Amino acid sequence: MSNGKMCGGCRRVIEDRRFLYCGGCKQFYDLNCANVSEQRFYNTFTKEHREAWRCVLCKSGQPKTDNTNTPVRAGADGVTVQRGASVRSPQQLDIMSIVEQPMSLNDTTHSMNIEVIDFQSFVMEMRAFRQEMRDEIRSNRSRIERLSETVLSLSDKVIECEDRIVMMNERINSLENRVSKVQTDTSLAASVEQLKAELNDRDQDLLLNDVEISCIHEQKGEGLLHVVTVLASKLGVNLAPQDIVSATRVGRAPEPVEAEKSLVARPRPIVVRLARRVVRDQLLQAARVRRGATTEGTGLPGTSRRYYINERLTKANRHLFRRTRELCSRLNWRYVWTRDGRIFVRQYYGKDAPRLRIRTEADLERVFGRDAVSAANNNVSA
């Protein structure tokens, strides 16, 4: 709300109570024209300061020194004018004497009081600024201390991670060295293969009295001892009951045929264990002589079909024999057979074609070549 006062500097109406009164020119000035900050106005300007305040024009009209002892020139007569000095009229001299009248003691004291007040306000502002800077420095110092603690913690964690990485690298290098030693240690691998081959040969020796009969119709409730006796008679070998130790089918039982529930589609082989090895050799020899014998005339159920009697092999030898037959068929090798659980091959008939034994997987590469074995493996995997 306007208070009816007008600024003597900008000639605008003063809207509030933030103004100063000059005792010299008797005019009001707002803070902007008085060149006084709002903070200084409220903090340092007391009642005495406001009463002693003078505007810039009033301050500029005050003399800088006391010249009360300087005589006033009375007139133009008797005045010696120096060369080059301007000559003034009596009216000009009177005006100069009026302007150059010395300041009184009260005016000098008033000017000094204003300067002291200004200096005190400056000191108070500097103290406030110093306190503000102290608070800011104290706050920054606490932040820097927290930041230093965080950096130290992160540094410890980084060092710990580096130590763990170094330890893991050492373990990895140790494992790589061990793996490389195992891979390069061919004697150890050869020893393992030798042990596996010896165990397989020992297991095969336990099956020297066994034969395997395949492609015989399977029926529920069948008498396998009778079936074995009939099939041996068809080959010309008479088996007494005491010659057969056991007879059983091996493998997973297949599903029965839809047309005839009592028979199955793919019968399991019959494993027969004989009491004497000589009887087993007679049965195998008769099966080789009468190759192509069928179940016709034996009285066994199902249609007539060809059956086979072979030596019983271990699981490893069966797998090895199957792969050997595949390679012989692919490479046109004519002969592959087993005798006493051992696998033999011959490329063709003749004295210059030796009989070669296949004992392990390594023998396949040795006999048929690495390229042929690799090609066969690729075809199987495809």
From TrEMBL:
Protein name per Swiss-Prot or TrEMBL: FP protein C-terminal domain-containing protein
Task: Answer yes or no on keyword Coiled coil.
Answer: yes
Organism, as annotated: Diatraea saccharalis
Q: Where is the FP protein C-terminal domain?
A: 314-367
Keyword annotations of the record? Coiled coil
Coiled coil start-end:
130-185
According to the record, the segments passing through the membrane are none
Top-rank taxon: Eukaryota
